[in-house]
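We examine the record.
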Amino acid sequence: HEIPGNNKNQGIRKYTVEEEKIIKELCDDLEKNDVIYSGYSE
């Protein structure tokens, strides 16, 4: 199921700003490689 972008991390745990930056970078890399996990896909 799709999760709204603003609530993407709710229900998992609250990430710090640095963690969010790292996660976004990792997600960008995955998207570039066409490897997208359902938990992070929009």
